[in-house]
């Protein structure tokens, strides 16, 4: 049998890659050089099947290319030295970046506006008592007050994690930027974190030699945070229990913080008029927060059958109820400083209500409105220090 073949040769100008054969853009590569005048001989055997076919590129570099190759090789060696020296630096940056990213994810997970609210309660109540009893100030007392925040924040963090674990499907509609929905944190990691947080708060509560009442309150708070979100109890699915738990958390936290403050300062627990005012004021404000938090969740709650006052009244009516109740609340003045402060806060509330109406009560502006109410919450505890 006679086998014939035809070998074809073609010349073309191309770029050559010295060390990185997978580089797709030699012009921009550190490991490549440009040699446009060097021809390539491309050979192929057309008559053979593909498995017998041989294709090769022959580069005719010529004598004049030696200097270019030598200079390029020096550049390549320099680049290689830089690349070899970079892994440890990149590794350090990678670890630091991961830690920062995890911290940022945890911050988002625990609902920053609630954390700020709890800190404002503790600082407002503690600050007022210390302001009126300056002779009791000491750095040791401040250190103890700082650690007293740990159980409060632990309770909030645990409740937030439970809520987001069991509301993943709803949050895909209402709050797609939350860590568990966006994939920044896995469900398994969230569970482990919730256990660590709950135990940390309990250990700190005991180490602070808190009264048995405070230990009981902390344990009950952890149970309430669990029962609020976890089936089959899931108190949040019932409007009455949802409303009751939200208000109780604000009032209970204020009462607990005040009791801890007087105990730390060695003062008797006295139900003073100023404290009576702030409890009454924050009870009403807690009610508005309970209503306002569901305005942005109407779409997701309705889809998954979660009944709330907001889903029944609608976003527009619920917004007017919240704003109206808060404006009435600001009419309750305790001292001259509150006349000016409440007038300013009421004006800001009216402006934000108007902005939400112009945005047609969309989900994102509704969340901003809800977080604005938390700003009013922080402001009230700041004013409380001076009444």
Automatic annotation (TrEMBL):
Spans annotated as Disordered: 72-91
Cell location: Plastid, Chloroplast membrane
Membrane-spanning ranges: 143-166, 187-206, 212-230, 242-261, 273-292, 313-333, 339-357, 369-386
Major localisation: plastid
Gene Ontology molecular function terms on file: transferase activity, transferring alkyl or aryl (other than methyl) groups
Keywords noted in UniProt: Chloroplast, Membrane, Plastid, Transferase, Transit peptide, Transmembrane, Transmembrane helix
InterPro entries given in the database record: UbiA_prenyltransferase, UbiA_sf
Organism domain of life: Eukaryota
Bilayer disposition of the protein: Multi-pass membrane protein
GO CC annotations on file: chloroplast membrane
Family affiliation: Belongs to the UbiA prenyltransferase family.
PANTHER family the record matches: HOMOGENTISATE SOLANESYLTRANSFERASE, CHLOROPLASTIC (PTHR43009:SF10)
Protein name: Uncharacterized protein
Source taxonomy: Eukaryota, Viridiplantae, Streptophyta, Embryophyta, Tracheophyta
